[in-house]
Design brief:
Blueprint (H helix, E strand, L loop, with lengths): L1 E10 L2 E11 L4 E5 L6 H8 L7 E6 L2 E2 L5 H7 L1 E4 L11 H7 L9 H11 L1 H5 L10 H13 L5 E5 L7 H16 L3 E6 L2 H7 L2 E6 L2 E7 H6 L1 H7 L3
Parallel strand pairs: 3-8, 3-9, 6-7, 7-8
Antiparallel strand pairs: 1-2, 1-4, 4-5, 9-10
Bound molecules: adenosine-5'-diphosphate and magnesium ion.
Length: about 230
């Protein structure tokens, strides 16, 4: 579904990504793990058309999307939940959800909002409150809901666990698993390697802008190098 070939990105002299290749099959849940500064956010932004690419190619469903603008990438069915969630804090929860549907022009926006409320009952209770007044976990649910409003084929999540209490993180990851089970393909970027490897099918390890390892998540979870570098063992 997604194929990245030899991608390189830089910020002036800083090389953020160098020769990154990876792929995601339809229906899979894949993670990219790596320390702070490894280049994870840069990679997601490159997929979404938000990042200048120096070299390499990105294909989605056989289309070359390397040079597309972000709204055209969104129209093809890729939704990103950015680091820090990117909500509009002085818009209501429901207005934030509606914004997620901006790439659509069908008549089913209302019924999709109802589906989100069915999945996250708290959001129905808080639908008219400012998003900025919600707890971190609730805001992450709004961010997930907003991304789902575009009916994405591929969902990109940048550090969904960041800043959240462990019990909330578990809840968010339960939702992510439910989404995968309902057929959405998911790519999760995480510093929390244990969490990411526990819920995904496959994973890539990014160090200093390069993919240094990849494989089945459960295999990586047992790998000595991964344990030492990322699992504090
Ligand atoms: N806007 C920017 N200007 C200059 N350097 C940046 C910018 N954004 C990120 N970088 C640098 O690019 C590298 C990768 O950053 P990033 O993709 O944010 O990593 P991660 O998400 O894994 O923490 C880091 O060295 C970071 O300092
Ligand atoms: Mg980041």
């Amino acid at each position: 579904m997604l194929k990245i070939d030899n991608l390189s990105c830089n910020y002036k002299q800083i090389i953020a990504l160098s020769d990154v290749s990876l792929h995601i099959n339809r229906g899979e849940i894949v993670s990219l793990i790596g320390a702070n500064g490894a280049g994870k956010t840069t990679l997601l932004r490159a997929i979404s058309g938000l990042q200048k690419i120096r070299d390499g190619k990105i294909y989605f469903d056989e289309n070359d999307i390397t040079k597309l603008e972000s709204h055209d990438v969104a129209k093809l069915g890729i939704a990103q939940i950015p680091e820090g969630r990117g909500l509009f804090s002085i818009l209501s929860v429901e207005e934030n959800l509606r914004l997620g549907a901006y790439v659509r022009d069908d008549g089913e926006v209302r019924s999709d909002i109802e589906k989100i409320y069915a999945q996250f009952p708290t959001l129905r209770e808080k639908s008219q409150e400012y998003a900025g007044t919600l707890s971190g976990g609730q805001q992450q649910m709004v961010a997930v809901g907003r991304a789902l409003m575009s009916r994405p084929k591929l969902l990109l999540l940048d550090e969904p666990s960041m800043g959240l209490a462990p019990i909330i993180v578990e809840e968010i990851f339960e939702v992510i698993k439910t989404l995968r089970d309902s057929g959405t393909t998911i790519f999760i970027v995480e510093q929390n390697a244990f969490l990411a490897l526990s819920v995904t099918d496959r994973a890539y390890v990014l160090e200093n802008g390069k993919i240094v390892m990849s494989g089945d998540s459960l295999e990586l979870l047992k790998d000595e190098r991964v344990k030492e570098a990322y699992l504090g063992a």
